[in-house]
Structure formats: C-alpha cells, structure tokens
C-alpha cells in the first residue's frame, strides 16, 4: 500500500512538471500551459517567493525553484531507494519528443550531472512514417544539445527489418 501511495505522489508532481515545462523555464515544444495562479501565496519552503504549486497530498505551497529542487530530490531518492542505477552505469532514456519523456530526460540529466552518477543518453526510434516523426526528432536533438546529452536515433526498419508505414 505505501508503495502505491508513494508512486501516486511522484506521478502527481511529475504530471504538473511536464504540463508546465514552459512556465518552469524549460524550453520544450508541444506543451500546454495550464498552470493555475496561486497569486499572493508564499512558498512554504523558502518563505519568500510566490507559490506556483500546491501539493494536494500535503497542502505544501512551492515556488518554481523549490518545486524543481523538490522533484529532483524525490527522483534521486527513489533511484537510490530502489537501487535503480549503479555508479558509472550507462543509462538510456527512451525519448519520443513528447513532454513526458523530455521532462524525465531533463530531471535525470540534472541528477546525473550533479552526482556524476554515470552516462546518460537519449534514444529515439524513428518509425519511418512520412511526416510523423520529423518534428519530434528535431525537438529531441535540440533539447539534448541544450542538456549536453548524447542523442541516438535508431530506425524501426534497422531494428525490426520492416517499416510501420
Ligand atoms: Zn520557494
């Protein structure tokens, strides 16, 4: 039961993060902006900045920088708790170019850099469908370049010997 609750909390924070990447100052394309204003409410952590997020499960109010630090801390703690990554390991993140996978890559790249955890790469599969993947391949390439993360694109045809189109 605790396990279920734990993941539910992380997912709630993660959803908020990925739905508000622009407002959080992260340049990712194709993301909706639906951040609710929490005007005149002050962050409970630093007690100085305006709150932009209220945690439904704790009532905690967080400003942008405290929210970003908090979610990175939670992800780092989770990686450690479940021994998900060993030092020096190569970790590949499957990145489609959508907001969720880009958010995950963003958070992991910060954690990997700050903790010299290992090497992180982004892998994108090009399905080879005309006009479908080009825009997201460009987004992933630019985003990885900004983060300093290696991006590898593999084609569906190379992987499976056939095309999806
Ligand atoms: Zn704060």
Describe the structure.
- By secondary structure, the protein is α/β, with parallel strands linked by helices.
- The chain has two domains: 1-84, no CATH class; 87-165, HUPs (Rossmann fold, 3-Layer(aba) Sandwich).
- Helices cover 44% and strands 15% of the residues.
- It contains five helices and five strands.
- The chain has helices at residues 2-19, 64-81, 99-115, 134-147, 156-160; strands at 53-54, 61-62, 89-94, 118-126, 150-155.
- It has a three-stranded parallel β-sheet. Strands 1-2 form a two-stranded antiparallel sheet.
- α1 (2-19) packs across α2 (64-81) and α2 packs across α3.
- The longest helix is centred in the first third of the chain and has 18 residues, at 2-19.
- The chain starts with a helix and ends in a 5-residue tail after the last helix.
- Bound molecules: zinc ion.
Chain-wise SSE layout:
Blueprint: H1 2-19, E1 53-54, E2 61-62, H2 64-81, E3 89-94, H3 99-115, E4 118-126, H4 134-147, E5 150-155, H5 156-160
Parallel strand pairs: 3-4, 4-5
Antiparallel strand pairs: 1-2
Helix pairs in contact: 1-2, 1-3, 2-3
Question: TL;DR?
Answer:
With 165 residues, the chain is α/β, with parallel strands linked by helices. It is built from five helices and five strands, in the order αββαβαβαβα.
């Amino acid at each position: 039961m605790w396990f279920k609750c734990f993941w539910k909390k992380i997912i709630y924070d993660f959803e908020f993060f990925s739905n508000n990447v622009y407002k959080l100052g992260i340049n990712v394309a194709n993301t909706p902006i639906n951040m609710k204003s929490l005007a005149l409410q002050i962050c409970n952590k630093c007690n100085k900045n305006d709150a932009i997020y209220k945690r439904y499960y704790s009532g905690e109010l967080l400003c942008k920088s405290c929210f970003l630090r908090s979610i990175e801390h939670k992800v780092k703690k989770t990686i450690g708790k479940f021994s998900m990554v060993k030092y020096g390991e190569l970790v590949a993140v499957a990145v489609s170019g959508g907001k969720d996978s880009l958010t995950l890559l963003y958070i992991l790249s910060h954690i990997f850099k700050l903790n010299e955890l290992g090497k992180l790469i982004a892998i994108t599969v090009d399905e080879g469908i005309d006009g479908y993947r080009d825009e997201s391949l460009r987004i992933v390439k630019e985003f990885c370049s900004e983060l300093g993360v290696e991006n590898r694109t593999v084609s569906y045809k190379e992987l499976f010997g056939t095309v999806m189109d």
